[in-house]
Amino acid sequence: MDTPQITAPSRGPSPVPGDTTPSSGVIHINFRHAAGFTVIGNHLAQHHGLSLAAIGLAAHIQSLPAGARIGIKHLAERFPESETRIAAALRELEAHGYLHRSRVRLADGRIVTRTVSYNQPGADTSTAAPPQPRTRRGKPAAPLPPRKAAPEPHPAPPPAPTPQPQPTPVLVPASTARTTPPPPLPQPQELTPELQRTATTLLADLRRHAPQLVLSEHDIRTLAPGIATWLERDAHPDTIRHTLTTDLPSPLKHPAKLLRHRITTLLPPPLPGARDVVALARPGALVIPLQNCDGCDRAYRSRHPGHCRDCRADLHTAA
Fold this sequence. Notes:
About 35% of the residues lie in helices and about 5% in strands. By secondary structure, it is mainly alpha-helical. Among the domains are: about 80 residues, Winged helix-like DNA-binding domain superfamily/Winged helix DNA-binding domain (Arc Repressor Mutant, subunit A), CATH 1.10.10.10; about 70 residues, no CATH class; about 35 residues, no CATH class. It has a two-stranded antiparallel ribbon with strand order 1-2. A two-stranded antiparallel sheet has the order 3-4. α2 crosses α4 and α7 packs parallel to α9. It starts with about 40 loop residues before the first helix and ends with a helix.
């Protein structure tokens, strides 16, 4: 019974060659890259303050060649994330020093955004390696033939310092943020207590018809004069409610701002007076009547009796 069983293995086979295989967690199987790779520091890959989207976006930007387009719309076409999520990730990278964006004015007057990517924030930029010129893959550059040394009667002056190449600016569309203040909220001619109460009730009741339109008491007091202006111009409450709750964006982040915009820009004009409507409805109100000339008895159109055009010209010549 004490004879060893030489056919049975002493232990189970290791999934990875070597004696350092962990019992749990991730297991790395690494092969050395020969071409087409990007070196990224662990300070970025294991950053505790950046989101996964920001870390992945930083790795993508660092893998791109100089001059590549990294605008928000271009990245949104490349990846499934929305423009809002990509913009938030870019702001994260800018806050932690991995990205720097500045507005510059070109010689033709256009304002563009210059974007610079840093693979190691806080490092001394004077020691950074300048970007190497790109060559066609698979065809190494041919060496230049050696030059023959020519006799120089005088010592040659020292060569001029070679200017360091600057990072290629990445042109992205200028921001479309609002630069002018919004138009003022409409104000009624007389804000009576009845108008104030009706407008406040209509605004507070909007959330029954659109759950997104939940307003605070401060927002209701601020927007009430605009609704009172609509009511003062004989707009029906159902019409106002339909205008404010139809075709709402999703998601709706600022309901009060959206309602203020619709109240201001969609305000109907005052109704015409009863006399104006009667004048338009009267037959012949817009037709100029016929008159008989006092001089030649010719018929002509005018609102007042007198002379026709030819008789007026004769009278003027005789005078």
